[in-house]
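ok so for the tutorial part 2 we go from a plain amino acid sequence to predicted structure tokens. step 1 is just haveing the sequence, like this:
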Amino acid sequence: QVQLVESGGGLVQAGDSLRLSCAASGRPVNSYTMGWFRQTPGKEREFVAGITWNSGRADYADAVMGRFTISRDNAKSMVYLEMNSLKPEDTAVYYCALKWKLTVAIPTSTDEYTYWGQGTQVTVSS
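step 2 — the prediction. this is what the tokens look like for a chain of 126 residues:
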């Protein structure tokens, strides 16, 4: 089993920045794709960003391209999401996810990911 714990969420104003962290434990995660998703009430969980095991490639949702940056530190079993120029529409619960399969793909579907964190709330006021 892998445990994922997100942190770093909070209440910020539009235009501000925030960095989310995801700490993985339980089993080594260095070889697996990881991603960030977000969800608002009444909507499906949506892909935000993903990164391959060696940070060789990252992928982003169109809505966050150019504003968010995903990174990982395999030595610390950590994944980060740097969020800049935040907008009210970025308000959501943000989830860290891990795909427990050796791949160079970055899936955007929630079905492709095996482990999930409990989420951290990000609220952006206008």
